[in-house]
């Protein structure tokens, strides 16, 4: 414990397991075991964004962060920042969200500061990472009926990661994916219909960890003035 009267910056008061896993729909609590004199104030961030009262399923507690009814989008990097008059420190977490589609794929592995570690044979493992983030910046995509769209989630890792696709948090069936299973990192949606609108999530995972990304696809009905022709494949209603 910090000696009274001396004062000191925040410090870790207990062991932290930086990699946490939770199943879809469950509740999880990420602890922030810090102490200091004076007692530090804490704030939480997810992927660089400050968590506030508008995040309805998130509750910032005195000693941690509680997330209820976990969704796939909740996966990511969480930081608890503790600050007092003598300094500040961060407690980092990587949260992995799993469901029945990926159960059994996830296993506990030795922790590494950057998601990498060596096993007893000296082999280097690495958690998945997206290798073409510039092609993933546009996450909200609008397309007219009858057109097509490609959703990319190119990733690397060791062991080589697998990928699954979900629509509105439900795994896509092989029939829905169709020929796209030949193109491992790309989901190609053709001849779009209004019912194809929704959130498409790619889940990339190996034995070290899991990452995901979500695209929102909006299929727009094409309205045409009377007597005007339209592009082939675009329906007017």
From TrEMBL:
GO terms for cellular component: plasma membrane. Its main location: membrane. Pfam families: I-set. Residues 10-96, 128-218 form the Ig-like domain. Residues 104-130 are annotated as: Disordered. It is a single-pass membrane protein. SMART domains: IG, IGc2. One of its GO terms (molecular function) is fibroblast growth factor receptor activity. It is found in: Membrane. Keywords: Disulfide bond, Glycoprotein, Immunoglobulin domain, Membrane, Receptor, Repeat, Signal, Transmembrane, Transmembrane helix. PANTHER family: FIBROBLAST GROWTH FACTOR RECEPTOR, FIBROBLAST GROWTH FACTOR RECEPTOR-LIKE 1. This is Fibroblast growth factor receptor-like 1 isoform X4.
């Amino acid at each position: 414990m910090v000696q009274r009267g001396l004062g000191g910056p925040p410090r870790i008061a207990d062991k932290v397991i930086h990699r946490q896993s939770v199943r879809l729909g469950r509740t999880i609590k990420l602890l922030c075991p810090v102490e200091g004199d004076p007692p530090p104030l804490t704030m939480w961030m997810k992927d660089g964004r400050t968590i506030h009262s508008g995040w309805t399923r998130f509750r910032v507690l005195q000693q941690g962060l509680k997330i209820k009814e976990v969704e796939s989008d909740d996966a990511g990097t969480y930081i608890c920042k503790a600050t007092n008059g003598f300094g500040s420190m961060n407690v980092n977490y990587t949260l992995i969200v799993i469901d029945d589609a990926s159960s059994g794929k996830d296993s506990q592995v030795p922790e590494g500061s950057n998601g990498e570690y060596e096993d007893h044979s000296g082999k280097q493992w690495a958690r998945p990472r997206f290798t073409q983030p510039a092609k993933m910046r546009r996450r909200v995509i609008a397309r007219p009926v009858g057109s097509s769209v490609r959703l990319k989630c190119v990733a690397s890792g060791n062991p080589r990661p697998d990928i699954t696709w979900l629509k509105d948090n439900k795994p896509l069936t092989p029939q829905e994916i169709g020929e796209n299973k030949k193109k491992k990192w790309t989901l190609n949606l053709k001849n779009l219909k209004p019912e194809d609108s929704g959130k498409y999530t790619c889940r990339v995972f190996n034995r070290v960890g899991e990452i995901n990304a979500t695209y929102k696809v909006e299929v727009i009905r094409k309205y045409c003035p009377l007597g005007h022709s339209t592009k082939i494949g675009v329906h007017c209603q």
